[in-house]
Amino acid sequence: MSTWDRLADLELRIDDYALEPLRMNVSSGFERLSTVIRMRGGGMEGVGEDVTYEAAEHVAAWEAGPVLPLPGRYTLGTFAEHVAGLDLFSGRALERDVYRRYRRWAYESAALDLALNQAGLALHEALGREPRPLTFVVSLRLGEPASLEPLTRRLDTYPSLRFKLDPTPTWTDEVIAGLVATGAVDSIDFKGLYEGAIVDVGADPSLYRRVVDAFPHAWYEDPRLTPEIDELLKPHRDRITWDAPIHSIADIEALPFLPRMVNVKPSRFGSLQGLLDAYDWLAERDIGAYGGGQFELGPGRGQIQLLASIFHPSTPNDVSPSGFHVDEPPPNLPTSPLEPRPSATGMRWAAA
CA neighbours within 13 Å on the CB side: how many for 310? Predict the structure, then answer.
């Protein structure tokens, strides 16, 4: 039985739903908007989170309200088919087509949470698995020009933190040496596949060489494999991972070579079946996975932490508690590894 088959026949009743706006100023220097989908039926509630990055798409949804034809009785599988046939953006032209996957994930994850609550089951029980302690890294940029201060400030409060860092051309030899001295860097995200985006830093072979020489045991995410960089990284292929291009099994198969590890962001897959089939496919091929977040502000963060604790708990999961997203993380945040906190029913990370 596939993992999806364990969930597809769950019965689901939807009476109505509501949209809850969320906002936060995050450490990357922008105001993050997201939308919580609150789906209700039979006195129960299920939640999911739309992580679309374009603020205008959230505002448009908030202004329109709950206009989708969702009320009814389904199985989780037939609901997924129903949502797949809907225009979740009411005809709006989108800046990025992947936003359709993000919003579909919000509705399907809310439906799964509701169906599990209605069945009196927790996600791990329905899957026949146990959540385990969850390791995480904190994703961070070091400012422009780059400085150790954003990292050391966090280490002053949380000395056990591990990091996933985005190198930029202003990473001097002194900055790199300082990072090495901390011993706290697990992953390097080259952001090499975001050409033309705000996070694009180009493909400077000298920067790649200095970073790889300094961090020979780190994971290297999304390098831009120009001929020169491809040659440079050939001895390190077992450390190369991929994130931005991964939306399906087909995307993994289309990579230049099969990796040892990939970043599995649930919202990028869009559908529950697509995500769970990918987990099965990776396990069959002994390819590792780690979770990735999308600046979730609400219950979506706990949901991806729960999935990571069930499917890949011991990898460098980029799913840190959302308190680490801000420039000044508050004290007393939970540190890695996170003890499993599955809710008694549903698909949620229970409140601490």
Answer: 24
pLDDT in tens, 150-208: 999 999 999 999 999 999 999 999 999 999 999 999 999 999 887 666 666 778 999 99
Q: Are residues 50 and 115 in the same domain?
A: yes
Domain that holds residue 192: 127-325
> Is the domain of 90 the same as that of 176?
no
140 contacts 129 by C-beta, under 8 angstroms: no
Contact criterion met (CB below 8 Å) for 117 and 14: no
Looking at the domain assignment, is residue 341 inside a domain? no
Q: Which residues of the chain have pLDDT under 50?
A: none
Q: Which residue has the tokens 């069930």?
A: 310
- Number of domains composing the chain: 2
Q: In terms of Cα–Cα distance, which of 28, 48, 54 is closest to 108?
A: 48
Crossing angle of the two packed helices 272-284 and 76-84, in degrees rounded to 10: 110
- Same domain for 17 and 131, yes or no, is no
Q: What percent of the chain has pLDDT over 70?
A: 97
